[in-house]
Amino acid sequence: MQLKIETSKRIELVDITSQVQEEVMKCEIIEGICLISTRHTTAGIIINENESGLKEDILDLLNKLVPAGAGYRHDRIDNNADSHLKAVLIGASEALPVSAGKLELGTWQRIFFCRNGWAKKQDS
Fold this sequence. Notes:
Largest sheet: 3 strands, antiparallel
Number of strands: 8
Radius of gyration: 15 Å
Order of helices and strands: EEHEEHHHEEEE
Number of helices: 4
Helix content: 25-40%
Distance between the termini: 9 Å
CATH superfamily: YjbQ-like
CATH topology: Jelly Rolls
Oligomer: single chain
Structural class: alpha+beta
CATH architecture: Sandwich
Shape: elongated
C-alpha cells in the first residue's frame, strides 16, 4: 500500500495514524506486523504523542542538531544536506504489531511522517 501525504512546509510532522489504521483494516489483517516506511531520503517515520508543543519541540531539536546551511559538503550538490542528515537521525521506518485488526499503539502514541526536505508531496 502507498499513502499520499500532503505537506505544506519544508520541515513538518504529519499524523498518519488514521490512514495507516484504515489500510490495515482494508487489508483485513487480523494478527501480524505493520511496517510503515518511506522511500524518500529526506523523510522519516516516527512514533510519539500528537501534541502541538511536542511536535514543535521535535522540529526545533532537529533544527538545532542539524541546522540548514551549516556548510555541509552535500550542500554543493543540491543544498539540502540538512534534510538528509535529519532523516538519518529519524529513521525511515517503524514496525507495529497488529492485534484483532488494530494497530497496537500506546494510549498517546501516533504515527508521524516527518518531512525534512524540499518536495511538496511525499509517498510513504
